[in-house]
Automatic annotation (TrEMBL):
Protein source organism: Mesorhizobium neociceri
Superkingdom in the source lineage: Bacteria
Record-listed E.C. numbers: 4.1.1.104
Chemical reaction(s) catalysed: 3-dehydro-4-O-phospho-D-erythronate + H(+) = dihydroxyacetone phosphate + CO2; 3-dehydro-4-O-phospho-L-erythronate + H(+) = dihydroxyacetone phosphate + CO2
Keywords of the record: Carbohydrate metabolism, Lyase, Metal-binding, Zinc
GO biological process terms, semicolon-separated: pentose catabolic process
Membership in a protein family: Belongs to the aldolase class II family. AraD/FucA subfamily.
SMART domains xrefs: Aldolase_II
Protein name: 3-oxo-tetronate 4-phosphate decarboxylase
Function: Catalyzes the decarboxylation of 3-oxo-tetronate 4-phosphate to dihydroxyacetone phosphate (DHAP) and CO(2).
Length: 211
């Protein structure tokens, strides 16, 4: 794993998210696994203007070893790496439509993003809601551990999405797919909407793997 390329990829992909309005201000944070720990965006940093040399590095025990102070959501990120060994990167955003679903009281907490299109099934899988805790509360880590690795993505109630992937590219593509599907769900709200049928979902899982 080339850490310096990974740092450049984090900067480039974060800027792209920011430029397209998936994040604003200093909201959101991104981490990626490296051989000896993980890289995570610094707390209070803007995803549009990251400096590769200031990205925080933590060792395998979660100790801060270099860069600016890490995101306060480090507990959330580490819980995904701990419970889903296939995780190579974690993306947390306050993207508008996924956050809207996280605030709507009739979003199904066991199935926040119903399977209405193939790509959300292929890239994201089942999304559960995690009860509200304040940003940076270590309890968020306990709540993620409680899912026992069953979800690649969650919505934090009244806060926003957290999405994981094998690597930084797949985590970000999945976060974009989740946001676009959330937008469709908000647009289609109260309109009778066809879901993919269970056999169609199974066909996708067989053809493309499941989350
Ligand atoms: O989105 C955020 C908190 O939930 C941003 O926090 P950080 O700036 O500490 O990464
Ligand atoms: Zn947040």
């Amino acid at each position: 794993m080339d850490e310096s390329k990974l740092r450049d990829d984090i900067v480039r992909l974060s800027r792209s998210l920011y430029d397209r309005g998936f994040s604003v201000g200093s909201a959101g944070n991104i981490s990626a696994a490296v051989d000896d720990g993980l890289l995570i965006t610094p707390t209070n940093s803007c995803l549009g203007f990251l400096d590769p040399d200031k990205i925080s590095k933590l060792d395998r025990n979660g100790n801060h070893v270099s860069g600016a102070p890490p995101s306060k959501e480090i507990f959330l990120h580490r819980a995904f790496y701990e419970t889903r060994p296939q995780t190579g990167a974690v993306v947390h955003l306050h993207s508008t439509f996924a956050t809207a679903l996280s605030c709507l009281s009739d979003t199904d907490p066991q199935d926040c993003i119903p399977p209405i299109t193939p790509y959300v099934v292929m890239r994201v899988g089942t999304v559960k809601m995690v009860p509200y805790v304040r940003p940076g509360d270590p309890k968020a880590g306990d709540l993620i551990r409680g899912l026992k690795g069953s979800c690649a993505a969650v919505l934090l109630a009244n806060h926003g999405p957290v999405v994981t992937g094998r690597d930084i590219f797949s985590a970000i593509y999945a976060a974009e797919e989740l946001e676009e599907t959330a937008k469709l769900l908000v647009i289609l709200r109260r309109a009778p909407t066809r879901r993919l049928a269970p056999d169609q979902i199974q066909e996708l899982k067989t053809a493309f793997g499941s989350h």
